Amino acid sequence: MNVNVRFAPSPTGTLHVGGIRTALFNYFFSESNKGTFILRNEDTDQARKVEGSLEVTEQSLKWLGVSWDTLVTQSERLEHYKKYAMHLVSDGKAKEEEGAIRFFVPKTDKTSWTDAIGNKEIIFENKDIEDFIILKKDGFPTYHLANVVDDHLMEITHVIRGEDWIPSTPKHILLYQAFEWNVPIFAHVPNVLGIDGKKLSKRRGAKSVLDFKGEGYLAEALLNYLMLLGWSPKDDREILSKEEIIKDFSLEKINSAPAIFDSKKLDWLNGEYIRSLGDKELGNRLLEFDSNISNIPNFEKYLPLAKTRMKTLADFRLLVEDKNVQLLDKQRDLNINLEKNYLNLKQWTAPFILPATFSARDESGATTQDIYTVLTGKPSGLPFSEKLEIEGREKTLERLRKQK
RNA sequence: GGCCCCAUCGUCUAGUGGCCUAGGACACCAGAUUCUCAUUCUGGGAACCAGGAUUCGAAUUCCUGUGGGGUCACCA
After folding, report:
1. What is the average pLDDT across A322-338?
2. Taking 80 as the threshold, does the pLDDT of residue A306 lie above it?
């Protein structure tokens, strides 16, 4: 199958996860059919344009490992839109109106198409569709015109976009028919909803893709999670690499119902990906995420201990760093006993630290959680014997003395 | 409100007339392992929106209702 697809964001803000999922569907559809993938910057709205939006989109895509074949910008293609708009005018299908050009919808008949999502026919009565502007008086095209002209010129075979475009699809089809062009296949993918059940939007606090990066999510985990939202492989697999998705991807397997974004499952997946990383690789990812982590002495030694306890890369620092708290009486006793036992310890290694710590605990009538509180300021954390071995005797004793 | 889309456990989903007393995953609960917390392992509760119709048989097909969502710009 010959496949050409495009992802066409407008540069009016940062790309959130709903938008990126549409990009992902385009990308994987193109990849699995060895097609081409165009990134099209739809900057035809002068007023709403936000500087830097395209760059953020590119960064987001790159971070996720999504590549595109060409980048085109609509504001550089104004003459095309104008030319085709004038065609319509001279054919009597559109008319100049106060400096703008309006397309006339034939009010009889119906317009329909078979949508690839759910393989269903969607029908609109033409009388319900209003005449619409195709070229604005500032000389820029509206989405409808620019989209149809570009999709035709770029030989787009499959238009994969959000389902909020369904109501304007008949307008686009009417335009294709007016130009006597072939109509591409439409695949309207359901929206991603927030926990409130409403469409994700920046206004309602939808996070951008780069926000997830900043919070310590792994690109492959986010990508995996997003693909599971509304799409599923043939079997029960949940953890899928890019290659596996490319192998399995098809439009037919996209669900026709909207999906709610559930961060709990993302957290789980991210943890799974973190645990699957080798220590060295995890260390590199941590440094990329936060270069200050290199200031933690022997930070790489904590990796095997922290790995099973992390949901995001940001958790590492939280796990390793200690806190200061006010001790209870029995914890104060424990503190004293620990200092005594540690001073006399023959060897500062985990197998020695462990029994010495427990005997101090028993002498002071404390609990194991008290040990963690005294040693780290937190009721739980990395296994103390190994953690203390890494930190060294001096640092440990210093803490015990200070909080006496 | 008009038009359009959608409807399986709390969430993501499998399921395209009999394999379904509905499967998997997350989350949740319980137990095991464990130096805490996690990880890991085992087990558990949890769903076909409602009502009609078609059929020997319906989660799967068709109607109606209800609910949710989207869209109604010289914005995309």
Report:
1. 94
2. yes
* Residue A330: active-site member: no
Q: Which nucleotide is nearest to A12 (CA to C1')?
A: B76
> How far, in Å, is the CA of A305 from the C1' of nucleotide B33?
17
Answer for A272: CB within 7 Å of strand B.
yes
Global model pTM greater than 0.90: yes
Q: Which nucleotide is nearest to A46 (CA to C1')?
A: B75
Q: CA angle A374-A377-A378, nearest 5°?
A: 110
The arithmetic mean of pLDDT across residues A23-38, rounded, is 98
Q: Which of residues 72-131 of A touch strand B (CB under 7 A)?
A: 97-100, 118, 120, 122-125, 128, 130
CA distances from A66 to A27, A58, A299 (A): 7, 9, 32
Q: Percentage of chain A with pLDDT > 70?
A: 99
Q: Is A154's pLDDT higher than 70?
A: yes
Q: Helix A368-376 vs helix A329-343: angle between axes, to the nearest 10 degrees?
A: 80
- Nearest residue by alpha-carbon distance to C1' of B16: A118
Residues A355-363 have a mean pLDDT of 96
Buried b (16+ CB within 10 A) or exposed e, A40-51: bbbbbbeeeeee
- Residue A164 Cβ under 7 A from any strand B atom: yes
The four Cα atoms A242, A248, A254, A260 give a dihedral, to 10 degrees, of: -40
Q: Considering only residues 308-337 of chain A, list those whose CB is below 7 Å from strand B.
A: 308-309
How high does pLDDT run on average in chain A?
95
Cα dist from A175 to A11, A38, A89, A105, whole Å: 24, 22, 12, 9
The model's pLDDT over A187-233, given as tens digits with 9 standing for 90+, comes to 999 999 888 877 777 766 678 999 999 999 999 999 999 999 999 99
Q: Name all domains of chain A by residue range, CATH numbers in brackets.
A: 1-276 (3.40.50.620), 279-321 (no CATH), 329-402 (1.10.10.350)
Q: What ipTM was assigned to the predicted interfaces of this complex? A: 0.95
Instruction: Give the per-residue pLDDT at A319.
Output: 97
